[in-house]
Amino acid sequence: MSRLVLPEHLAVLMSGRQYIDVIGLAKPWPIPDGWWDHARARIAELVADPRAGASQNWTSWPEQTRDTVPFLQNLAMSLGGYVAIFAGEFAQFPEQLVADYLAPNQRREPMVARNWYMTDSEWPLFLLKYAGTDPVARRGALELSYECVRFLCEVGPLAARGRALLGIYERVLASGSLLEFHVLAGFPEVARLWRHSLLSEAEQAVLPEIGGWGAALQWSYSGLRAAHEHLAAVTSRAETLTEVVASMAMCDHLETLPAGLAVAVGPDDFADISVAFEERRQDFDQPEWLQDNRGWLARGMLAGEIDACRAWIAMAAQVARVVTGLPGPPTPSAAPDTIGFVTDVEEMFTVTRAVNPLVKALAKRGAQRNAIVEAAGVARVPRPLRSVDEEDEEESAVVPAVVIGDPQAELAALVGLEPIKQQVKRLVAEARADQLRQGAGMPEPDRSRHMVFVGNPGTAKTTVARLLARIYAQLGTLSNGHLVEASRVDLVGQYVGQTAPKVRKVFNQASGGVLFIDEAHALIPHDAHRDFGVEAVSTLLKLMEDRRDEVVVIVAGYPEEMQRFIASNPGLASRFPKTLAFTDYDEDELFEIFALIARQQGFELADGVSERVRSLIPRPHPAGFGNGRFMRNVFEEAVSIQAERLLVLKEHTPQVIRTLIADDLPSEPPREQPKLHGMYM
Q1: Dihedral-angle region of residue 582 (phi above 0 means left; psi in -120 to 50 means alpha; beta otherwise)
Q2: CA-CA-CA-CA torsion sign (76, 79, 85, 87)
Q3: What pLDDT, in 10s, does the model give residues 340-379?
């Protein structure tokens, strides 16, 4: 299996660059060069701002610490989430941000991940609270709060919640009545306004804890449900969501489930959580559950769902800490294992370059042994001389580099082919499920991935085969993901002894990818008993059996001919268990293919072209109709006719040159040309 690769938006995690990462839906933020110097200077300006003073006797902070310093630390943790998992080199980011102002005993030991959370849902109003009752000071506190949040919006993972909070501050500062209320009313009345009526629905969706810890738990539980259902669909041995919540409560040694949990999750889910909670009372093993849950998330990452895993662990951490703290604020929780999760990401996605010294040591021992044997004059079995064909086979084993990209998205973007897309989706699911089963200790499946493609020319059989090669490489089923196209002339010799080496050579070229044999039925002609094609098929079948995990073989051709081909040898039916049928495109799809080819070549289509193109499509389609190949022939003919038209024009504006008009289309359908290569071929 090829190594796991992080998606592009997470690649910075293994890049060696400095970044700030808050696990969840936000992308890690690569720290720009010079940002820390800029941040220290901006923090110094904010701390020195006279709109906030040193009004509090801050526990564990140095004497005369100005209120803005702990406020900035609280903002840094709270803008990441009301429970935020910072990971990586800057897992201590809220402290590192204000490191110049910390007392020595405030500096915590570095960790690969740390859970940060506030115990007060009124955190956006701290500077206002510290300002006392003076209206001028309170207005200044609001303005300075705004400036602090605006600065921290520079940090990518903090930006979404930061922008929502900026919008609330802006609304308060711009509204005469709201501002007057904030500077004159008692702080409990201001906090009540924020909790019950000030925030819009969109703002509540980003800052749920402002509405209280019950509202926050309801928000996090719904997010955990979505992430859990998504992962359960692609992983094995998943607990139910209610079992997970019960297990996390057991990890924190709760005696009873809090009543607030019932309000947040609803009576049905609370009943299921209660049942699971009671079932776990007698023999619950906290370390074992944390390890099992960690393994389940690892299987989710193996299935390509690292984003869903990051979302799951973020929501689970919030649910666990609120449930443990209810009816009060969040408190520490043993679940889930956030440090283990971050460690697993690093282990699974890091490319190891360690060389086992045993390899070198045994190679040296082997060389010493050979020298002793030769010195003693002991006869050794010589290597046989190789034929020219065998030398060619060895040279052909070098495979080309392939850029995998996003082949599943490319398949989805193809015109038509809905049944094919569904079948490929099932093939992907089978491959992923096989990996999960092997990871769970189940025996390796005896599954053949070779298949038959049937359909008329131009129905995208080759295109889909090429995408399927890259999809299997993306999943780790194939090691490289390239496509080798072959036909009878590449596989069948003219004389005795030529055929088997030709087949082996082509098969070697396809090692790690897909071997696509077009018009495979030509290997076995109707009068085949004296044809070398029979030897080609026998050689191919043996290679497919001996090297079954190395190459996926796809044979393609017309439906009736391929049925005869499969029936010609008993081994073919068992080696090719799947058949994908490519139907002809309808008229709308054919025109869409024509328009796509034109766009890819830089052309625009004038009015009337659609009707003219459609008039050239035969109704009904004749046997062997070329489909996409036919439309490419129509396009090539139209380009030739346009070239003649351009030569007689006096002016050649860019618009005229790039536009195909109805008169550029041929008056009759073009004759089929030899096979072309490209999309829909």
Answers
A1: beta
A2: negative
A3: 999 999 888 876 566 788 887 887 777 766 665 555 554 4
